[in-house]
Amino acid sequence: MTDGLERRAWGVEALEASGDGPAIAALAAAFRDNPLNVAVVGGDPERRLDSNRAGMRQILPSTRRGGVALAARTPAGLGVLLAQRPGAYPLPPAPLGAQLRTSWAQGLRVALRWRRVFEHLDRIHPRDPHWYLATLGVDPAAQGHGAGSALLAALLRRADRDALPTYLETDRAENLPFYERAGFRTEQETAIFGARIWHMQRPVGRD
Questions:
Q1: b vs e for 27-63, b when ≥16 Cβ sit within 10 Å of the residue's Cβ?
Q2: Do residues 133 and 74 make contact, with C-beta atoms less than 8 angstroms apart?
């Protein structure tokens, strides 16, 4: 495979705050070209990276307060998973200072458009107890070598121990087979700003 990197089950570990810098960089790059990201932020790839970094700097501390942050480290780059425990959705708002810094970094127009996206997703989000896979991204240099699969498997083991379903959204059609192999099924398809979003759920105890 690329650069001799073999596909394998990478070790998964808790993402400590000291590792936020590399995690933010990996997630910013992983989502840079997603259709929803392009629709919200615009066509400039560097602006999308900057916007993503600002958003992730706010999201990571919030996730730790009510969720799980996991990392899979490979020689080519990092994979990161952010999830919310049953009953933790929606997470409490970030401190006002963090919100203002994010809005300043992203620009008011982009920040308001992201707010509309989150409101759209919230209207559809299930209210029954579940694990919420909020974010799963792998540094583009490390994609295709098993880091994402290892992270997803680690989360699903927790969901199975709790005997609860797992819910996610994705805006990339090419992600559907990946999640379907893990037992997810599309429950609804919506769109915002012209970007399609698939709302998927994995039932309890699905192998």
A1: bbbbbbebbbbbbbbeeeeeebbbbbbbbbbbbbebb
A2: no
- Domain hosting 143: range is 12-202
195-205: pLDDT as tens digits = 999 999 999 86
In a domain, 153, yes or no: yes
Cβ-proximal residues to 7 (8 Å cutoff; 6+ apart), any chain: 1, 144, 145, 146
Confirm whether 6 is domain-assigned. no
Residue 101 lies in a domain: yes
- In the three-class reduction of DSSP (H, G, I as helix; E, B as strand; rest coil), residue 70 is classed as strand
Domain count for the chain, please give it. Answer: 1
Query: Rounded distance, CA 17 to CA 24, Å?
Result: 11
What are the strands of the beta sheet with 67-74, ordered from one edge?
Answer: 12-14, 67-74, 77-84, 131-138, 166-170, 195-202, 185-192
- The low-confidence residues of the chain, meaning pLDDT below 70, are 1-9, 205-207
| pTM beyond 0.90 | yes
The CATH number covering residue 87 comes to 3.40.630.30
The answer to whether residue 127 is domain-embedded is yes
* Interval 98-116: pLDDT, tens: 999 999 999 999 999 999 9
Which positions ≥6 away from 197 have C-beta within 8 Å?
Answer: 36, 121, 169, 170, 171, 189, 190, 191
